Amino acid sequence: MALVTYTLLSALASGLQSRFHPEVLGYSLSKALLVVSGEFCAIKLGCYLLDVRGSGASGVELIGYGGYKFVGYVWVPLRPSRPAPVLRGDSGRDDGMLFELG
């Protein structure tokens, strides 16, 4: 759920910067899925190397847990106290990042 919201919010941000193209949806979703699958493979490799058996998390649980990282990516630009410059109408950064550090 947060993954789809992240994808739509990144498309909204690029649209507010007048740079929207339908490829933005595919690019941001592909990048997000690559991050989740890379994290999944790294955790599974770590479980294998540490010889975690039986009571380890299943693949579905790991993918579900990995999706929670996008909640922060969605919350930070939409937080009421200090919205991101892109959503305030400012030019924001040119690298397409939706969140501010600090």
Description:
With 102 residues, the chain is an all-alpha fold. It is 63% helix and 0% strand. It has five helices and no strands. Helix 1 packs antiparallel against helix 2 and helix 1 (2-16) packs parallel to helix 4. Residues 92-102 have low confidence and may be disordered.
> With helices defined by DSSP (H or I, 4 residues minimum), what is the helix count?
5
N-to-C series of helices and strands:
HHHHH
Total strands: the figure is 0
Distance between the termini: 26 Å
Rg measurement, Å: 16 Å
pLDDT < 50 stretches: 92-102
Shape: elongated
Quickly count the domains: 1
Q: Portion of residues in helices?
A: 55-70%
Mean pLDDT: 77
Largest sheet: none
Which percent band covers the strand fraction? Answer: under 5%
Structural category = mainly alpha
Layout of secondary structure:
Layout: H1 2-16, H2 23-49, H3 59-66, H4 69-78, H5 85-88
Helix pairs in contact: 1-2, 1-4, 2-3
Compact summary:
The protein is mainly α and 102 residues long. The protein has five helices and no strands.
Offer a few descriptive terms.
102 residues, mainly alpha, disordered C terminus
